[in-house]
Task: structure prediction
Amino acid sequence: MKPVLIIQTGRAPDPIRGRHGDFPHWFRIGTRVEPHRLRVVEVSAGESLPPPHEVAGAMITGSAAMVTERASWSERTAGWIRDAMDLELPLFGVCYGHQLMAHAMGGRVDYLPGGREIGTQPIELINDASHDVLTAGLPAVFRAHTTHEQSVLEPPSGSTVLARSTRDPHQLLRYGPSAISTQFHPEFNAEVMRAYVRRKHADMRQEGSDPTGVFKAVAATPMARRLLRHFSRVHGWSHAIG
Result:
């Protein structure tokens, strides 16, 4: 049985990782893929990806890096994404992974106008979302966790925008029958989101936002988490329900 890749593009900050684990752990819990089926490749540390035809699919994590830095490991991963797209390999990108997928396919990534988006946000489904296999069962508006400074400003040609937030019009993109990405973090739980808000407290104050209010507004996001589980089940990675 081919492994499911977790393409790790960075690590959670030390204090968060020490208490809550790191990105691969959160994705494993979110998808309910059996640990023996997963293979983690930390591309940001220089590890090499296997050829796309040797894996069952891939999830691409978030990162503190910026896609616009065009780091060599990031650009190599973008090339791998293009090859995987040619094979219609199941791909699910999150945050940095979302931006990198869009960049790889010809979209434009840069800083989100108005500054960082952080906290639990209402996400609104749009366009063909009610007919999409992944989002058809979701409510028209659901909650999701966000923390990012860059975003997809121009989606790639041929992609479909399925959801937006008040600040970011490209929260959920569909690239083809097996590839999707989210700017929001379906793998986060509320405690992880609170930990990120605590960590960014001083930056948020300096930027003129209200970290206390954002912290208090953090809430559970079961519908966002459902996206990961449903994607995993649809592509045969697990038998997750809901």
Notes: The CA atoms of residues 125 and 139 lie 8 Å apart. The chain has a mean pLDDT of 96. The chain is about 30% helix and 25% strand. The first strand starts at residue 4 and ends at 8.
